[in-house]
Amino acid sequence: MKRASHVAAALMFATLPLAAKVSQEEADKLKTTLTPMGAERGANADGTIPAWEGGLTTAPPCYKGKKHRYCDPFPDDKPLFTITAQNYKEHADKLSAGQKAMFEQYPGTYKMKVYPTRRTAGYADFVYEATYKNALNAELISEGEGLSNASVSVPFPIPKSGKEPVWNHKVRFRGVGTTRWNVQAAVTTGGDYNLVKITEDIKFHYNNPEVGPDEIDNVLIYFLQIVRDPARLAGTITLVHETMDQVTEPRRAWQYNPGQRRLRRAPNVGYDNPGTAADGLRTNDQLDLFNGATDRYTWKIVGKKEVYIPYNSYDMSGEKYKYSDILQKGHINPELPRYELHRVWVVEGEVKPTTSHIYAKRRFYIDEDSWQIALVDIYDRRGALWRWQEGHSLQAYAEPFYSPAMGTVYDLQSGRYLALEFSNEEPEAYVKDFPIQYFDPSNVQKQATK
């Protein structure tokens, strides 16, 4: 009887909300000194970061329409300067640990071309209205592993604790759904690679403006991933229902192996288990720079700072460049990325002593305008920098929302890297709203065995 009362008390504590929602006075800053998404509206002191003026929410004349690639709205922009191994220490206060390590490791080839800052991130009015409402009502529950009283947009535009910016990234508005190609290349130290081509169908259930907080039914995202090439991996399927409260119900996941011809529950799709076809260069929770439960780490906000991050990556994600133009020995082609100076939230996660993860500490740099993670420094158990990630991104102005365009995971200790979530030679991604039934395991099993 005594044991039962202890269990009941623990469950009751798990469902109690953590302080998160802000006062009316604070929320009203989203209409004055802050942007509707919680960023600083004004320019920085020296004007190198301009004031936010609404973002880029209409398509430029060069855009050919949906299902076509996003053209570069700034074709005449030229680099302001280039950071190299010879001058990077002059810019060290605006670089992540991973970036600085790249200049040391590849002094003859690595560089960063820095362009004028364009604060293009912008959204529809209903997203801003949802953000304001979330600011007043959203709460973390279940010791920070659940979210309540929020929908559509970021729940914590004025964050107070370390988990809140991470939640903002996980549920940031990306439309109601998408179908896309995710090409991966695990590049060897010699520059060789084999392409793995994957299709992904995603329903952002939380982001649907027609679904309120009480109608989400504890599922944030429905995700279906199918490997299409090479032949030895083709037909491998991963299905995920990402839950909103992972204490009430952990992530639901299934995998299909063509050799077994059965869709099976897969409790290991998450945390530091190896990511699909990544040759051991990323974990499951590194897709989209970070995804899934946060419970293995203790989180804290370090502060805000100005950092050079990948931004407005239209040119490098377009049809002009082939995969062979992008993938080079040591790192992607440094002529192609566009870096800009932006304000970011710096958030650190350190593994709790009561649990484990192959990454002992991660430092995230989260763009203030979009809440998208731009950079991640990753440390091993000895405290040494092991890996680091970049998220190249662009404003999907026809929707509008800010969107991933390509990711990289650099292993500084092995000299290898993984490029992922790019699709230059595949059909362009486009917004698509899937019915929930599409992601039912029985339906996926039928598709797999056709």
Total helical segments: 7
CATH level 1 class label: Mainly Beta
Number of strands: 18
- In angstroms, what separates the terminal alpha carbons? 53 Å
Sheet with the most strands?
14 strands, antiparallel
Shape: globular
What would the average pLDDT be, to the nearest integer? 94
Percent helix, as a range, is 10-25%
Radius of gyration: 21 Å
The figure for the number of domains is 1
What is the CATH architecture term? Clam
Helix/strand structural class? alpha+beta
Q: Uncertain runs with pLDDT below 50, 5 residues or more?
A: 1-16
In terms of DSSP E residues, the strand content is 25-35%
InterPro entries: DUF1329
Keywords: Signal
Pfam family, one: DUF1329
Descriptive notes:
This protein has 450 residues and is of the alpha+beta class. The strands form three sheets. Strands 5, 6, 7, 8, 9, 10, 11, 12, 13, 14, 15, 16, 17 and 18 form a 14-stranded antiparallel β-sheet that branches. Strands 1-2 form a two-stranded antiparallel sheet. The termini are far apart. The N terminus is likely disordered.
List keywords for this structure.
450 residues; 14-stranded antiparallel sheet; disordered N terminus; outer membrane lipoprotein receptor (LolB), chain A; two-stranded antiparallel sheet; alpha+beta; globular
Helices and strands, with pairings:
Elements: H1 2-15, H2 24-27, E1 81-83, H3 97-105, E2 112-114, H4 125-137, E3 139-141, E4 146-148, H5 163-171, E5 177-187, E6 195-203, E7 219-229, E8 237-243, E9 252-257, E10 262-265, E11 297-310, H6 323-326, E12 339-351, E13 361-367, E14 373-379, E15 385-396, E16 401-411, E17 416-422, E18 430-431, H7 441-448
Antiparallel strand pairs: 1-2, 3-4, 5-6, 5-17, 5-18, 6-7, 7-8, 8-9, 9-10, 11-12, 12-13, 13-14, 14-15, 15-16, 16-17
